[in-house]
Specification:
Two copies of one chain form a homodimer.
Chain A (H helix, E strand, L loop, with lengths): L2 E4 L3 H8 L5 E4 L10 H15 L6 E10 L6 E2 L2 H7 L2 H9 L5 E12 L8 E13 L14 E3 L2 E2 L5 H6 L2 H14 L2 H7 L1
Chain lengths: ~190, ~190
């Protein structure tokens, strides 16, 4: 049974295929609620699972940049803040702080129905990458990549391979793949 | 039939009673989705209407501070931004801008079922107050009141009476009350 990754981004689906056998990308505009990443992703996965027929398992991701001195801002609203304040103003906010530690974080939510006629279950898996907010550097990447430095290099200065090696989404996918390998339905499939 | 105002804030219910005959305050933690004020309030009213029995009409409000030079930030996420960035940092962001115009805005959403066995309908009403973002002044109010100046006075410097006279929620309530007075069910009740 394929896992339906609900995303409009083919690159995310390709990254998922590095960790999972059978991924099908599906476009569906699920409702995003307000809350932390777990809450947003879990509600989205539940919504998409039902809307897409309630049979095939569904995967949804939500991600954000969390700045420690700003109490986690912009967090779950990173995309909105990028569109309104913009990355340069986020840098200026951090420039005024002594503590510039931050992390990128992804939460994956997997909605499935383990028993036919049973309840929908939603599991979440997280991955994060620590870093430091710096003045913008580099031409690659997108979003907050130019101001997020990991091991001396900003995400916008990394090659695709370097970036994938420190991918928060990749870390969440690896945790999810480990969990999935231990699931009864998967073990049955492997026999 | 009373209008059930879904809010944990008794002050908001009291303000609504200045514009509407029969307001009952109800505590219910409706789901807040991501989106503009209209979207958030309308989805909340629909959720609350169904959860509270699907008969009595329900009123929900959502409000935010919109800074023009920041593309409307913090907007629908004003409460989250207050809790994380804080009001002083929002001031500092605006201090760096030449254009410090802003407005406070409330959207009310009213969910009702005009015909028995008919569909739920949701109407929205808005009220806004223009102002300017300034360095914090005044000890009254809450939230962004100290940095929002209207007619030379910050909201935190105003008396309750002065503040009510320029209430964005009051303006939305007045528009709603006008609309309600023209509704068939209300006219019937008035005969």
């Amino acid at each position: 049974m394929p896992i339906r990754f609900v995303t409009s981004n083919e690159g995310k689906a390709d990254e998922a295929r590095e960790y999972l056998d059978d991924v099908e990308r599906v476009d569906y505009d699920y409702t995003e609620i307000q809350g932390d990443l777990e809450t947003v992703a879990a509600a989205g996965a539940r919504d998409a699972f039902e809307a897409l027929g309630g049979v095939d398992p569904v995967l949804v991701d939500d991600a954000g940049l969390f700045v420690r001195a700003l109490d986690g801002f912009p967090g779950p609203y990173s995309s909105y803040v990028e569109d309104t304040l913009g990355v340069d103003r986020v840098w200026r906010l951090c420039e005024a702080e002594d503590d510039r530690r931050a992390h990128f974080r992804t939460v994956l939510a997997y909605a499935h129905r383990p028993e036919e006629d049973g309840d929908v279950q939603v599991e979440t898996f997280e991955g994060s990458v620590p870093g430091t907010i710096v003045a913008p550097r580099g031409d690659g990447g997108f979003g907050y990549d130019p101001i997020f430095e990991h091991d001396g290099t900003t995400m916008a200065e990394m090659s695709t391979a370097e970036k994938n090696a420190v991918s928060h989404r990749g870390r969440a996918l690896a945790t999810f793949a480990d969990w999935l390998a231990g699931e009864p339905a998967q073990r049955k499939g492997a026999q």
